[in-house]
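Extended Data, record Endonuclease/exonuclease/phosphatase domain-containing protein
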Amino acid sequence: MPDTSRGGGECARRTLSCWRQWVTCPTRKDKTIDLFYSNVKDGYLSLPLAPLCGSDHNLVLLPSKYTPLVHRQSISSKSVRVWSEDACEDLRGCFERTDWTVFYDDEDSNVDNIAECVTAYINFCTDMIIPCKTIKSFANNKPWVTKEIKAAINNKKRAFRKGDKNKLKLAQKNLKRAIRQGKRKYKDRVESKLQQGDSRGLWKGMKLITGYGPTSAK
């Protein structure tokens, strides 16, 4: 809130004693006569900008000091296999045309060696036939967010841009249903960790669901 009158800053300081003045840079020559008060601790930075047209007041940029998690942490990338129906059919055909007897040697009947050769061949066929794509993982990604949920979010955005209230209401309903299904599937996956005796994976999934994490000391 700007205040260019004499004594305005002193009056504001008395009236807003529990608030903090965030404009700390000069706004008119070497004086700070524009005020912006807030009760948020460590809320803003004060950066001067050039004045507009012939104004004798500088502009003030007050960006938030808080940096979102998605900006504080780096983006990680990983490669995943795209197991489409066509790719699986091609892989199945490759295995059907394979002469598996070549992996058996009468002189070497060691089961471990045979298993190693067969596994290496299967991995080779998989790398050659199943396509691979790179996906980006952001810090605020939720583990239960699937491609169905993302599609429902995009449908909601399209309905909002078109201004169709009926389609927007239906898209919101479908999005809620998709989120419930995604969380339920992820919950079942976490519970399966308990049945498999994987306590580490179980607690990792529980922390992701509840949002639990270590708090920084103030």
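Summary. Residues 1-66 form one domain.
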